[in-house]
Amino acid sequence: MIVEAINRDLGLPAQFVCAANQRVTVEGTVFAYRDLGPRDGLPLVLLNHWGAVLDNFDPRIVDGLARTRRIIATDYRGIGASGGNAPLTVSEMANDTIAMIRALGFEKVDLLGFSLGGFVAQDIALRAPELVRKLILTGTGPAGGQGIDKVWSVSWPLMLKGLLTLRDPKFYLFFTATANGRKAARDFLVRLKERDKDRDKKPAPGAFMRQLKAIHAWGRQPPQDLGRIQIPTLVVNGDNDIMVPTVNSAALANRIPNSQLIIYQDAGHGGIFQYHADFVTRATAFLNG
């Protein structure tokens, strides 16, 4: 967008709500992305959750991280404005992302994966370690991790509750039922509506269910050798994640040799959204360290 370009020229902070919707074609498939922040240094590629489109990235986190680095936020194949059919496996999503990163001309990047995005980020780190400098895994878990293949049985009752109460299901799925959790949920959902023009397309139901199959397959596949990940890794979650149980974050930190673990108190799957300011500070320090 013109506003984003003017802000960059004037040295003003980047704003995700103003970032232009862009496209790159990879092996005949169009992938949607947004690009903001300074152009020097390694880009940080953001990989989001199940059913998420570009407008589901938290603007406070994106803007905070974009103060010091270039941010590339993406749509998976078959999701939002990206073309093709949504993959049925995490490995296909990882291969797509590797190809897209290379199509954008990047030889090395940092990765931040949330939930499903954390599955994809791990697979990228194992498949193309030369492409990744640092890795941030949030609200996520390893292949074969505890409870990951049960995400639908946990999610559908709260999705139904959201429908009946006229609330976004993330209000119940991503946050605790405490006063702090409920306030954080309301604030987060307001932030997701800040962009009022050129919003991304919502995911089609078929794509949503194909991604669910990929998540279930990830939860049932044999564990990967995470000891092969020699990349510095930051693992972050809330202490009460009901979607990807928090025990999986501890497992990641134990199995990835060069890793750090942050667990936010009174927080759920969306702990990084509830504690967005602290997360941006810690993530920036980790990336700059």
Automatic annotation (TrEMBL):
InterPro entries: AB_hydrolase, AB_hydrolase_1, AB_hydrolase_fold
GO molecular function: hydrolase activity
UniProt KW Hydrolase keyword: yes
This protein's record includes keyword Hydrolase: yes
Pfam families found in the cross-reference section: Abhydrolase_1
Key words of the record: Hydrolase
SUPFAM superfamilies xrefs: alpha/beta-Hydrolases (SSF53474)
Database matches in Gene3D superfamilies: alpha/beta hydrolase (3.40.50.1820)
Segments forming domain AB hydrolase-1: 43-273
Name of the featured protein: Alpha/beta hydrolase
Annotated source species: Pseudomonas laurylsulfatiphila
